[in-house]
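Changelog-adjacent note: as of this version, every example in the card shows the full chain rather than a window. The one below runs 760 residues end to end.
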Amino acid sequence: QCVGHVTTEYDGLLRSDLVIQPEGARQIDHLSLDVPIRPQFALYLYTFPGQWGSSRNARALPEGDWASPFKPMVWIGDNDRGLEWFAESDEGFRLADANRALEIIRSADAITLRVNLVTAPLPAENLEFSFGFQATPVKPLTPDVWDYRICHHGGYGIESQPWKAPATVTYRAEGHIDLSQGTFEAWVRPRFDTQPRVDPDDPARGALNRNLFDVLFADSSRIGFYWNIDDLGMRVYCRQGTNTFPVILGSRAAWQRDEWHHVAFTWGERLAIYLDGALVAETAHRGLLDAPLRDARIVLGEGESEFDLDEVRISDVSRDAFDLTHAPEADAHTLLLDHLALDPGATRRTSPARGEGGVATGWVVGEGRFGPALARPDEAAQMTLLDRLAQLGVRTLVFHEHWTDIQNYTSTTHGDQLRSLVRACHDRGMRLLLYFGYEISDIAPEFAAYADEMLVAPRQGGYTRQPPQTAYIVCYQSKWQDFMAQGIARVMDEYDIDGVYLDGTEYPWGCANTRHGCGYTRPDGTIGTTWSIYGAREMLRRIYTIVRSRKPDGQVNVHNSTCMAMPSLAFATSSWDGEQLGGMEPGPDPLTVLPLDTFRCEFMGRQWGVPAEFLCYDRPYTWSQALSFTLLHDVLVRGSLGGSLEAESKLWHAMDDFGRHEATWLPYWDNGRYVTLGPDASIKSSLYWRPGKGVVAVVSNLGPKASNAEVRLNTAALKLVGDLQATDILSDDPVDISRDGRMSFPLPSFGFRVVWVREQ
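Full-length structure tokens:
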């Protein structure tokens, strides 16, 4: 018979602690737990733990039968729902084949998850087992990350730190530069200290470099022409891929702030730099880079720049003479000539004398070397960094671990600065979340007395930071949970913060530290591993209760990469997943790294009941490439200032105007009634449909080559009547659309457009 205790909790968690009593039997030959699931609901398989540098633990359900060694969590589900089985350990399992602790068995009417408990015959005796189930989704998905609008620019003093507006001009590279030979030239006026005092060994001195001209390639290769702090002059370099530099050439210049200077570099049989018409540096180097120009961009003013800019010319010949007495003119070798005389406006295209216009952002109109030019805004007219974040629409600001000097601690020596930041955020309608994680630092006052009891065993981690310290992974099955809960409550009460950003706190670490109750004794006397599922769940439950009892709309934002541990993650208000792939080299096909069925399984949030956001470090794919597949799943990639946050801001505001929450989402795998795509299967489209407001169509090219997107909206099914208008949300450009809903436009590999279609 089976005797036990079963607990069911409000979020769908069921815990079973069972004793099997084999009355009258002499031997137990086989004992298993079978969990049948209807085949239509069993599309995906997720197992825990995952592996850094891989996404293989989330995938489509295997075609045939499946077997695995013990894993503490297994989830099977579809795009809307699922069921997670979990156990803290394999204590009590008696297996003839340890590689078949878990099995999936297919039949005509069921997909069965089989947990093999006994497959090695043993004398009849009472057997104890503990396991649980978590039904998903655990809660509704509103509000979600589109509403929270989270970014990671928290820091002391940002409420008074001037925000230096990025000012750039971006051109299509193809047709505007010849990599085999050519010349770039421009007039520049430095608006920065050109003779700064800096220690030549200071590792932070690179922040004083000032960019002028960059060619950015899809494979992360780069050509740069910039003012360099070590040279105190202009430097040019070519980078092949991520870390190979075929050539670097520097020069020195005795410039003063606010003086106009002519700068140029040439390439062909040699690489040379000219300043004010004079040759100042050269080296033997043929051409620039061996890289395709397709999808490459030319950017003037990328990142930290602080140059005023006038008279840009790019030629397909290596020039060695420059007339500095008047503005350059176009000739037979001119590929781009832009006088940069613009009307005032926040975002607009330039009107070059030769070549296609570039997109200019962040400039004001100033007096140039030869008439009007692009100028940097005066510092007096600049807003603070916090003001800029509020202007973009950020609603939630995360302050990482440096809010306190001690890693993952619950007090700070910067209390007055923290209060000032909280007040400033609240004055702007923003919320502030502070970082808490999964470690204890060796400079924490409690470390010496409690580390042996609190840490996971065997000891793991070793994160170092400034001030000098090393932090190790703690198990929340220990009393450190009480310390963290009390500390977070005190921080909320003392500083009025609006919630927490949890870095892996929900992760149930494998632990064999018997001092706090983890681990178990195997029949051979060794200590087996326990996965602290209930400890992590209780930690997250307490944190959620602390936050929501003080702030009913407070946030528990969890960084959960590789870890869909629903017993603990259920208490998150949103999740951030994807860092497990961020250490990979850039360049591979994103869908090889992260197949679509893998993304649907782990990263959507929809079937889990926790709003999901994707993490991208521009490796192994760029932020834009990541958006090409995340937006198809209604998932945002969290952005940062310098381009991605500004683009994300446009999506936030457009979706507010459209009314995303009132719209019906029609994903690419189930919208054939509403949209028809051309013959290229690499083109995918998901739709948001709101009668009266039209349709927002995400159209992506997920193939390895550029392709033309052929899209036809079913206007009858979507109730679109009469003439239509379409606008690209990110570029603000109009998109040609016919009365019957047909659109056609080119997309690069892993390029995308977000097009709002509505009645005129």
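Structural remarks: The first strand starts at residue 2 and ends at 8.
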